[in-house]
Design goal:
- The chain is mostly helical.
- It has one domain.
- Helix content is 39%, strand content 8%.
- The chain has 3 helices and 4 strands.
- Helix 2 packs across helix 3.
Length: 127
């Protein structure tokens, strides 16, 4: 059993587990590539690059609520430099297979009142 003691350890462990789940180590299409060269399959789909992954993670605010997976934006920000190549291959695998884990498609919407005494749906905002 591996124990992650800090955010960087958690980020590395998370990246390794996702990579093991979604990337075939024998598949030539997912071999290491230059970070600025996205993969294109059949000329139809331009798949993600490590730079694209980093570009999505960079604007995240550090002190926001974590998701149901327990992964904070702080961990994702540290993870982007450690594992953006792996995360890119994971996203590429999911897109090329046309299959995404159910947990990636599940959200929890919390309705917050716009006014202190909200009584109707129009007085609520989804977050």
């Amino acid at each position: 059993m591996i124990v992650a003691v800090n955010d960087e350890n958690k980020a590395n462990l998370f990246a390794c587990r996702l990579a093991a789940k979604f990337v075939s180590p024998t598949s030539a299409i997912f071999a290491e590539r230059r970070q600025d060269t996205p993969i294109v399959l059949d000329g139809l789909i331009q798949l993600s690059s490590p730079d694209e992954i980093s570009g999505m993670v960079s604007p995240l605010l550090r002190r926001k609520a974590l998701g149901p997976d327990g992964i904070t934006n702080e961990i994702l920000k540290k993870l982007q430099w450690v594992a953006s190549n792996r995360l890119s291959r994971i996203a590429t695998s999911a897109m090329s297979l046309g299959s995404f884990p159910t947990r990636w498609k599940t959200v929890t919407v919390v309705m917050l009142p716009r006014t202190p005494q909200a009584t109707t749906a129009q007085q609520l905002s989804p977050h």
